[in-house]
Specification:
Length: 91
Amino acid sequence: MSFAYLLDPIVTAFAGCGFGLVYFAVLRHTLVMVARGRSGHAATMLTLLRLAAATAFFLLVARLGGLALLAALGGFLSARMLALRAERRAG
């Protein structure tokens, strides 16, 4: 097993984490908009944009193979854990 074989999953894990942090930040922004009564079309558009971006990201990563896809999903779920932890601390 070479280092090059492990490079794609490592890179995609970090990419998944980075994408997840942005994804959950936009989700939080959308929820704040809805809670303040400013939902309108902006919240709907942000939701659709988030889902389209997630679909595109995971489809692109899937082209690298199953291991890279699992690594990206692991990074994404790690970002979810970090976002939940930050939200609990903020209170």
